[in-house]
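Troubleshooting: if your tokenizer reports a length mismatch, compare your output against this known-good record of 148 residues.
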Amino acid sequence: MTGFLIAIISGALMSIQGVFNTGVTKSSSIWVAAGFVQITAFLTCAVMWFINGRPPISGLFQVEPKYALLGGVIGAFITYTVVRAMSDLGTAKAEVTIVIAQIAVAYIIELFGIFGSKKSDFSWIKLLGLALAIGGVVIFDMCGNKAQ
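Known-good structure output:
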């Protein structure tokens, strides 16, 4: 149950962050906004590191596989793509589409055990759920277009 609550908080924070980042972009540029997000995230992490007992940073040098260290680079592009999607599609439509893309890619990663994740068996029910979610995005988009 705790995991679901944390996931709900995470989704809410992502939506709020996307709106905030899009607002910052209007006063600067998309890469300035993305850079600011990354810098403030670093500062927040540094403060939390001090508060949480300062585990050794040297652990980063033991990370295997090394490509796992690309999370920050990916984070910069996540910020960019979320801001662009929200600017182009609006907050709700962008978020719904982003979430469906996350589910689809996560299922593919799980299905094939990519990046060392635990491999799962194919499930027609999960595929049907994904198809229903995609259908929901289409309906959501169609409703948005008729209201305009």
